[in-house]
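User: Second chain of the day. Same drill as before.
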Amino acid sequence: MKLLYWVREHHAAAKPKSGRLRATAAVAIAAAVTLAGCSTTSSTSTAGSTTNAAPSNQSNAASTPLPASPTNAASSTTCSTKGAPSSNGGAVANAQKLVDKAAGLTTKWDGPTTPAKAPKNKTVVFIAANANNTGDIGVYKGLQQAAGSLGWTVKFIDGQNSTSTNLNAISQAIALHPDAIGLSSFDAASAESLIEQAKKAGIVVVGNHTGESTGVQASYPGMFTNISSDPRLISQVAAACAVVASNGTAGVTIYNCGTEFKLCGTKQDGLTSEINTCSGCKILALNEFPFEAVPQQMAGLATSDYQRFGSKLTYMLAINDLYWDAAVPALQAAGVGPGGPPAMIAAGDGSPAAYSRIRKGQYQIASVAEPLNEHGWQMADEITRALDGLQPSAFVTYPHLVTIENVNLEGGDKGTFDPANGYRNEYAKLWGIGG
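Assistant: Same format as last time:
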């Protein structure tokens, strides 16, 4: 399972090759460190590689002094300049617009409005690339809720965090002869032949973070549609938080899964392109390694970068909260206080662990979250449309930036992003089963 859109959420346990990348959270960060001589070039130094093991935690002589690390929580400013002057005003202002929109409340329904006749007594098999992935399980729970209102049966299969077991899980699902199969955080390329096999057997296949983009996948016509927020936009919002919080002076390191999945490249492009709009910001290092190796490699990479760049390193950006689950203990051991620097920002998922860090003002200041439960309801809706002979809804949810300012809103008090847009009632009305 690969996909990573939706990168394996926030579990220190080894994750599958995919991940739901969702969630944004922001917590205050200590006084900004002004960086001199920053450039707009996109060139980066690479610490780590797609296959090499992470650097050891041995102390390397830093080229600049290590930043002072407060012992208490971060200060009160996150993703906001609060009117401070900036030599990069244009870039900061544009980034602030991205941040403000993503951090706003989701109170208006902007999903499908075309009714779809809901069939009765249907069976859906949901396959999570990894049952330990918060993103996948959040969607599964939403699908369960929706199925309960529709009178459907949902069966669950754990893809067990590897490509071979993921593919075996699809074969098992096909053998059950369900009406539909939901794939969460799968690598559509490796599963393509099985997806086609399911379609030929009359089984509807709907993906969640399974494909190269949102919606219908031209490369994988056997899949009815793919559900997710726009991964590139998710990453741009995350990077914009660093631009704004630093007032245009961010020195960042980026952690990504390289070419492992196409979505890795999509997210990486979003992060780098947004940082490079800021002439006073600089990408210090771009770290690429397999997503499934995050629990093993991230601690060493985070420590190495902290020692290497010292006070130049003010923000760490990753494509998923899972990276920070592994990095925080290592940086604590290296002497970094909860207020940083560096401060951590994730381009997905909005895991319970990320919500907790943001709420407490410890290490992570923001995460870009997707509405996992709502995506489960959307999966039920897309299956309904397929069974009713309709086209996919083409609905793409807007990413939500979670920061200290909004961390307890819209489900945040329960450690998840659950939009206040009435999606359950809206879908029930479309299916003709509710008011």
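Residues 134-150 form the longest helix (17 residues).

User: Great, on to the next one.
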